[in-house]
Amino acid sequence: FADLRNVLETYLSMEIDVTESINKIYDACLKSKDFQATKLLEWFLHEQIEEEDNARRTLEIYDLIGTELDGLFKIDVQ
Description:
single chain; mainly alpha
């Protein structure tokens, strides 16, 4: 990785990819009328919402702090 921001961007991208994969599986289950599997997958989809939010928030905090030493002060002010 070039820097920490690149790591965090990759983290977010991977979470988005996981969500897309689960959505594809969910869609296949709906098409095949496998409603029990869709019920199980709903739990994973709810978890992915949280995981994507965490990844986005981590990136936002990094952008707020940045690489300057005054970044931590910026967090305390907000």
